[in-house]
Structures are given as structure tokens and as C-alpha cells.
Amino acid sequence: MAAKRERAKLIEERMHERYGDGECSLDYETPFQLVVAVVLSAQCTDAAVNRVTPALFEKYPTPAALGAASIESVEEIIHSLGFFRSKAKHLVQLGRILASEFDSIVPNDMDQLQKLPGVGRKTANVVMCEAFRNPQGIAVDTHVYRIAHRLKLAGPSADTPEKTERALMRVYEQPDWLFINHQWVHFGREYCRARNPLCADCPVCDLCPSCEA
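^ thats the sequence. predicted structure below, dont judge the formating
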């Protein structure tokens, strides 16, 4: 474990050199907008989400406004996204709950966030790190899951996002939890792709047991 933590530290240093703190790919201005955008991003590209959120936020700028919307009107705006019907339903319910139970303020709390429709642990982690700079975990999406296993920072038994998150939390110090998701998303798109990873050019190849360079 000591050796794995040292290797993880070196990997993070190189990630920070290349990507800095890691920029969020979703466009947002407030915690409310971030929650909505992350809910919409499930099984969908961030670029696609960014194309629909300006119209959505213009028409429904507050939780109360979104909660008062008809599901059909939200569907019309986000219909280009996958699973738009269920996402529209979740967003209207989310707006209502934020307005009625949280005074239209997105809670800075993992458990409270996960009470919102459409918000699971991954989404809650993104909001805690990105909006509040209060890391309580690591958001494990497809990029983070793939990279964690290729780097052998998570073992074969970590066969779910939740188990992979726990494995990463054991090898990284809590301040680093802020940056890993965004950094690794950029790294996954640029080098550690699902298909045909660019191992020969990878900046952490010498630290990666799976590197084929």
C-alpha cells in the first residue's frame, strides 16, 4: 500500500503539471445550474449538455421556476439528450424539492444531495468538489473507472464504481480528491482512451503497469 500511495502521488503530480486543477467540462454559473447539468450528463456527452442548458437556464433560472414547469416543456428543451423524458421528470421534481425543502439552496452535504431526484453518489461528488470545494469522495465515471484499473490503483475486486472509489480514496489524500475526476476525464479523452489508448505518448506510462509503449 505504501508503494501504491507513492506511485499515486507521482501520478497526481504529473496530472497536475498537465491539467492543473482540471477544468469542469460542463458550463454553469451556480451550484443549482451545476446540479442540473450533471443530472443531464448521465449517459450523454458534456458537449451535448452544454448545447441545451443555456435555453433551459434562461427559461427556468431558479429551482422554483423549474419546479413549477411542466415536464413536457422541459422535455422540449432537452429532447436531443438521451433519456430526456426521465431526466425532465427528475429535473422538475428536483426543482420542487430544492424550493420547498432547501429554500432553493443546493445543500453542501453528500447525504442531502442524494435525496434530490436524479442525484446519485457520482453526481453528489461532482457537486461537492466543483461547487463547494468540499471533497467527500471521488466521482467515478467511465473514465475514472477505466483509468483506475489500468493504473492498478484499484484491484479486480473493485468491480463497481463504489468499490473503485473506495480503493482510490485509500491511496490518495483527501485534498487530491478535488482534482482527480476532472483531471482524469481530460486524460482519458486525450491519452487513456477506451479503445486504442495512446500509451506511447502517455505522460504517466512509466508509472502504469498496463502501459504498452
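The two ends are 26 Å apart (CA to CA).
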